[in-house]
Fold these 4 entries.
Entry 1:
Amino acid sequence: MSGQVIESGMARIRDARGRDPSTGPSGYERLFGNAQIGQLLSKVQATVISTGNELERVLEDNVTRPDGISIGKINAQKRKFKNVKTDADGNKHTIGVDVAIYRDGKVKLIELKDGDVFDTKKVAGEVQSLSIAKRSLISTGKYKEDQVSIHFCSFNQENKQQIYNGAKHLIPTGSAMTGRELCGELGIDYDRIIKDRRSQQPDNLDYFITELLKIQAVREIVKKNVAPI
C-alpha cells in the first residue's frame, strides 16, 4: 500500500438520526425544557459516538504495513481469543481486543479510544479483558510474560499523564499509548489522519449554529442578550 492517507473525515451532525422522539423525551430535553434543543443535542451525541466508532475503520483503511497487524478486517482472528475463562464459575467466552501487533517475537494488545476521559467501571472492564487476552496468549506456551504487553491508546491525546488521569489511574504503569505511537506501529501518518478527521468541523459548526438559531426560544434569548453587530 502507498503512504497516501485514504480520506474518511469525521462524522457530520447533519447525517445523524438522533433520538427517536417517539421513545419519549431525552435527558437533553428534560435539561433544557425544549424538545428541539433536545433533539439537536441528541444528534450531536450520536455524531460523537459515530466518530469514535469509525476511528478503527479509518486506521484499518490506512495501514501500510499489514504484516503482524490485526485491526478491523485485517488479520481479524489474531485479536480474538476463543474459549477463554472469564468468570469465577468457569464459563468460557471469546475475548476480542481492538488492535493486536505481533512483531519481533512480542505481542502488543491495544484498547483504542478516541477520547481521553473515561468511565471508571468501563476502564476496569477493558483492562480486565486485555489482561485475560494476555493470559490466554501466554497459556499457549508461545510467549512468556515479558513478551506480551497491554496498552491503552487515547488517540487524540499526546500527554501520557493525561491518559492515566483520564483512565482514573486504573491502567497499568507503562500501558498508556498515544495515537502518534500507535500510528507509528501501523505505518500511518498521524498528522494527516488528524487533519483529515478535522475536515468536517466547519460543516458541523455551521449546521449546529444554523439549526440552533432556527429554534424560537434560542432566537429570543440571543435577541435579548446579544448587541447588534
Note: The two ends are 52 Å apart (CA to CA).
Entry 2:
Amino acid sequence: MSKSVIVKWFLESLIGLAGGLVLLTVAGALALANDVFIMDGPDVVGVKSGALAWTLMGLCGLAMLVIISAALAQFVAWIGAVLNTASLPSKTWFVVLLVVGLLNLVFIANLVYVIAGPDGARVVPSSEVPPLARTPNGYQDAAPTARRAHVGASAGQGN
C-alpha cells in the first residue's frame, strides 16, 4: 500500500468521523428538544414511541455505524503505514508506528506518518536497472542472459 493510499484512507476516515459526530449530535439534540426521552432527573428511563422518536433513533444508529466504520478505516490506514515502513532499510519508522499504535494511539501514529513519514514503496536504484540496447525492432533488455548450449546439434548428422 503506497503512502498516497494510506493518506487517502486517513483523510476519508476523518471526514467520516466528523460527519458521524455531527449527525449523532444533531439527532440527539433534536431528540432532547422534542421530549423524545422520558427523563427521571438526569437519567433517561425510557423513550416515547412515535414516528419522530424512531426516525431520530435510526439516525443515531446510522451515525454510530459511520463512526465505527471510520475507526476501522483508521485502523486499516495504520496497518498500511506499518507494513509500508517495514520495507525501509532503517526500521525506526516501523518500530515507532508499531509501538505508538499498540499503545492505543493509532490516530496519533497515523497523523505523524501522514505529516512526516516516508513512503516505503521500493525504489529500484539505478545501479540495479539493466541498460537498454538499441535493436532494429526497438529497445530491449541488454542484461546478460544465459546462452543455450546447442546439445544434439551434431547428433542428427552422420549417426
Note: Confidence is low (pLDDT under 50) at residues 146-151.
Entry 3:
Amino acid sequence: MRNKSDTPTRGEVSERVEKSKEQMDEKVNDLDLIATDAETVRGTLESLDLNGTSEGSDAVESAIEEAENVTVEKFDEEDEALQEVQSDMEDFEGELQERTDSSESDSEQVSEAIGQITTEETKGELEQAKSEIDDDIEFLKEQNETAREAREENTQLQQEHRSRVQGGKR
C-alpha cells in the first residue's frame, strides 16, 4: 500500500504545472525586455556621432558600454533564474513519467486480476478500478505533455533572446 501523503492530488499536479509555466513565461518576458534594452543601448552607441571633445566622446562611449555591460549582467541573472525553473520543470516531468509508469503497471495488474476473477460483481468493481487508473494515466500524460511543451517553448524563446543579447555584444 502507498502512503497517501506522498501522492499529490490532480489539483496539486495541475497547479504545479501551471505555476511553473507562468514562472517560465514571466522569465522569458523579462529576458525579452532586457534583450530589447541591450539592443537599444547598442543602437544608441552606433547612432552617435561622438564629434564633441575626445574626453567627452570617450566618457560617453564608456558610459554607454557600461550600460550594455550592466544590461548583459542582468540578462545573465534572469537567464539563470529561468534555467532553474526549467530544470525544476524537467525534474517534475520525470516524476510525472514515473507516476505514469507506476499507474500503467497497476493497470496491468488489475487487468490480470480481472482475468482470474469468476464473480461478475467483483469483475465489475475491478473494471471500475482499472477505469479509474486509466483516467489517472491519461491525466498524468496530459500534464506531462503540457509541462514538456511549455518548457520546450520557453527554452526556444530563451535561445532567441540569448542570440539577441550575445549577437550584438562587442
Note: The radius of gyration is 26 Å.
Entry 4:
Amino acid sequence: MIEVTTSVLATQAFLRGIVPGHLDALAEAATDVTFPARHRIFAEGGHAASFWLIRAGHVALDLQVPGEGPVVIETVGIGGLVGWSWLFSPYQWKFGAVCASPVEAFQFDAALVRDRCAADPALGYDLTTRLARVLAGRLETTRTRLAAKVHDMAPAD
C-alpha cells in the first residue's frame, strides 16, 4: 500500500491540472485499496458511499438485465474513474462494478468529499465538471455501441 499524498493524486489522469489545495482536500478523503479479480466492488441499487481512481487493473461496469443477469457495458482501466452515483442524491448505484483483474485503486470517502465540496464550491464545481466529462464520454461510447448493434440487427436489403 502507498500513502495517498497530493503528489501521488496529481499523477492521476482524472485529477490532472486540479488546484493543489483541492488535491489536499481529496488526499484527506482517500485511501489506497486493492481488490482481487472477480471481487464485486458494488452492486446496482446499493448505497454509493465511495468512488475510485484505478491505478492498476480493470473494472467491468455491469447492468442487471432481467433473464440474463449482469451484462458488462464498459470496462474501466488505469487512470479511469469508477463510480459517479456518490455525487447525486439518493446516492444509489445505477450500475454494478466487478474487478476483471486484480485492481489497485484510490478509494475516496464520498460523504467526506461531498462535505469538502459544500465547504469549497470551487472544488465542487471542478469535480462536477470532471465527472461530467467522464459521463459524456461513457454516453458517447454507449451510443456508438447501440448504433452498431442496431445496424447489425437490421435486415439486409
Note: The first strand starts at residue 30 and ends at 35.
